[in-house]
Structure formats: structure tokens, C-alpha cells
Write a structure and sequence with these properties.
336 residues, mainly alpha, two-stranded antiparallel ribbon, 2 strands, 62% helix, 1% strand
Length: 336
């Protein structure tokens, strides 16, 4: 799934200009951000976007961020820190080209890191590699190398790159904070899954909390269990954590539907996934075409539809996962 390898973690570390992922606690000042029409600072907006990446986020925070961006633009040009926030929103909405255009004018480390991710989404791997190299001396060696190896792997998958990054992680992780460690480990897990090494992927993700980790990391965890033919684990440990299944992230909903197919269990998740896909089609929401293709590939097994939507997805996203989807649906010969 595309989202599996689109993991981005904001890093705002004191003194470095990089953003650390912030996980507000119930007693934090977020409760004081009401009423909803109060404009957010860039820091608050980044906090809400971090929260929105989790399993049971209701989506209100993202709406407030978008409201702030609209209001600030009406008042004049966005400040640089809010341009970065807007780029995060665009990337989250799969508007990769628009996000890249905004980020090209920013040179702080967090923006360079996000630009590398977005360029990977677009299949612009040389540009992603350049953005990663520009981080040299501005972030920790582990962060720069993770960015670099990820871009190189997506450009030309090679087990040697995975082994090299694994070695880097083993020697540097103690110097990273928890959010940075999770980003590095999720990048390694995505590589391991692509190399058909699901047991190693789970080893990289052994410390995650399904309820608290970003959806992208949880999705990697679930995909690894499916590769190991452990659908019951996905249904029991992931399904039980969802507070509002009908509003679950597309990637999570599809994984639960796949697990129920493999487990030959109650079709509840398959029905919810079908409703979501019908909604995407009715809205002509082609930014989620990859998910539509995966639904037809893995759940209702309509190969022609899977191939059609994989090709439609390729028109806007050309990362490694998008290329794999073309190959899995048999559309690679038509689109590459």
C-alpha cells in the first residue's frame, strides 16, 4: 500500500531547526485552543497533524489546521512555518506535486526531509536523494542516511541497501528520540516487507503501540502479519482498537477487510471497505485510486478493475509502492 512507504515524521528539535514529533497529553494546552475558529500557531498546527496520523483521530484537528491556513492566506502571504504546515496537509491529501512546489522554496531541515518524501511519492528519486544530501551537517547522521537509503531503495530496490541501513540503525539508535527511532524502524520495516521478510519487519516494529503509533507504522505491522498468514492477529489486535470503524483510515480498513477474507470470518470489515470504496468512486476521489485498486485486487478480486485503478493511480503517484501495485495487478506493461 502506498501509505506504507510514505511515512513522514516531523522532527522540531530544540536548537536544530528540525521538528520533533509531539504527542500532546490530556492535560496539555490543546483543550485551550477552543473555540474552533481560533487561529492556530504553526506549532499547534503541527501538533494536530501529528495527532491526525493516529488510529482513532476524529479528524477535527485537520479541519482546524485547514481553516487556519485559509484564514492566514486571506490575511496575506503565509509565513514560512505555515507554508511547511500547508505542504504537510497537501502531502497527507496525496497532492504531491503541489506540496513539492511549496517546499522547493524552503531550506530548513524539516522541509528538506518532507521534500525528499514527496519527491519519492512522485518518483523523482534523484531529487529526493539531493534533498537528503542537503541535510548533511544539519541533522543527525542517522536521519540523513535513513532519508538517503530510503530514496535509493525506492529508486532501485536492493537488499544491500536494507542491510546497510540496518547496520546504521544498530549503531545510532540510542542517539535518537522515540519518534525518530520509530521513523527509522518503519523505513526498515517497509524495506523488509518489500524484500519478503515479514518476520524482520515485525522485529523492527516490535516496540510500537497499535493504539498510539502513526497509522503508517500500524499498517506496516498489519501487512507483516498478513504476509505471515496471521490474519487473526490483525483482526484481534487492530480491529479491537478502532473506536469508530466506519471512519477508519482507508489503509487500515482495507487491511482489516483483507484479514477477514484470509480468515474466512464475518464480512463486517469487507462491507465497510466496500462502502468506503463506493464512496471514493462516487466522489471521483482518484487521489485514493491506489486503495481502490487494492480493494479490487485483494478483497473482491475484480482483476480488470484493479488494473484500471492501479493505472489511474500511476498518473499521479510513482513511488515504489505504486510501481509494485502496477506489477501486482498486471498493469505494468501498460503504464510503465
Amino acid at each position: 500500500m502506498k501509505q506504507f512507504v510514505l511515512l513522514f515524521v516531523a522532527l522540531h528539535m530544540p536548537g536544530s531547526g528540525i521538528a520533533e514529533q509531539l504527542f500532546p497529553q490530556p492535560q496539555d494546552v490543546i483543550a485551550s485552543w477552543q473555540p474552533a475558529n481560533t487561529l492556530l500557531t504553526a506549532r499547534q498546527a503541527n501538533q494536530l497533524l501529528d495527532e491526525a496520523s493516529r488510529l482513532n483521530d476524529p479528524g477535527y484537528g485537520t479541519a482546524r489546521v485547514e481553516h487556519t491556513l485559509i484564514r492566514r492566506q486571506q490575511q496575506g502571504e503565509l509565513a514560512r512555518d505555515l507554508i511547511y504546515v500547508k505542504a504537510r496537509v497537501l502531502q497527507r491529501n496525496h497532492q504531491f506535486a503541489e506540496a513539492a512546489a511549496l517546499l522547493s522554496g524552503l531550506d530548513d531541515p524539516a522541509s528538506r526531509l518532507l521534500l525528499a518524501t514527496v519527491n519519492n511519492n512522485l518518483g523523482r528519486f534523484d531529487e529526493a536523494i539531493s534533498a537528503c544530501k542537503a541535510l548533511t551537517g544539519k541533522v543527525s547522521h542517522a536521519i540523513m542516511l535513513t532519508c538517503l537509503f530510503d530514496a535509493r531503495y525506492q529508486q532501485s530496490p536492493d537488499a544491500a541497501l536494507y542491510e546497510q541501513l540496518s547496520a546504521v540503525a544498530r549503531t545510532t539508535q540510542r542517539a535518537l528520540n522515540d519518534a525518530q527511532q520509530l521513523w527509522v524502524n518503519s523505513t526498515l520495516a517497509a524495506m523488509a516487507l518489500d524484500l519478503n521478510k515479514p518476520t524482520e519487519a515485525l522485529q523492527h516494529l516490535r516496540d510500537i503501540s497499535v493504539a498510539r503509533a502513526p497509522v503508517s507504522s500500524v499498517a506496516l505491522w498489519a501487512q507483516a502479519h498478513l504476509q505471515l498468514k496471521q490474519p487473526a492477529t490483525v483482526l484481534n489486535q487492530l480491529g479491537s482498537q478502532l473506536e469508530s470503524p466506519a471512519s477508519a483510515d482507508d489503509a487500515i480498513l482495507l487491511l482489516l477487510a483483507r484479514a477477514s477474507v484470509l480468515n474466512n470470518s464475518d464480512p463486517h470489515w469487507q462491507q465497510l471497505a466496500s462502502q468506503r470504496i463506493d464512496q471514493r468512486k462516487w466522489r471521483k476521489d482518484w487521489s485514493h485510486a491506489a486503495y481502490i485498486a487494492e480493494y479490487h485486487l485483494y478483497i473482491d478480486h475484480h482483476s480488470d478493475q484493479a488494473r484500471y485503478y492501479a493505472s489511474k493511480n500511476w498518473q499521479q503517484a510513482k513511488g515504489l509502492a505504486d510501481r509494485r501495485l502496477l506489477q501486482q495487478t498486471g498493469a505494468a506493461g501498460e503504464s510503465l
